Amino acid sequence: MQEGTFIAPGYPQETGGRQPDVYAANCPTRQLLDRIADKWSVLILTTLGMDEMRFNALKRRIDGISQKMLSQTLRSLERDGLVARHVVPTVPVTVSYAITPLGSELIAALQAMIDWAERRMADVTLSQLAYDVRERELAEAIG
């Protein structure tokens, strides 16, 4: 294991009874982390955390998301129990989405990460600029 890393709790029954050094593709923890770490999932969850919304209202609030990606992500979040879909039998049918209690709990957990990103973005930007300068200088030195 690389120095400075730690063993994260996994599913020992899926990894032969020991803590994994690497999460297998079919590891339930990895699959859930893949879902909740996706930028669209985080943006949808935090937006729905403010209020229940219809599909097009969500699409307008999340700049850059395609209709297909919004639909797919909502379906996945609903399947995971993080978002609830409410259908009202009107003409045309009215569909709205809301955060579930499980989704609200996840938002609370994600909030520390969101706060960190907002607080440290200037530092990250400075690091990116310094890296770009080093890479440009290296490229010029090589040729």
Describe this structure in words.
The protein has 143 residues and is mainly alpha-helical. The protein has one domain (38-142): Winged helix-like DNA-binding domain superfamily/Winged helix DNA-binding domain (Arc Repressor Mutant, subunit A, Orthogonal Bundle). Helix content is 57%, strand content 10%. It contains five helices and three strands; from the N terminus they run ααβααββα. A three-stranded antiparallel sheet has the order 1-3-2. The two termini are 37 Å apart. The relative contact order is 0.09. Residues 1-6 have low confidence and may be disordered.
List key phrases describing it.
143 residues; mainly alpha; Arc Repressor Mutant, subunit A; 3-stranded antiparallel sheet; 5 helices; 3 strands
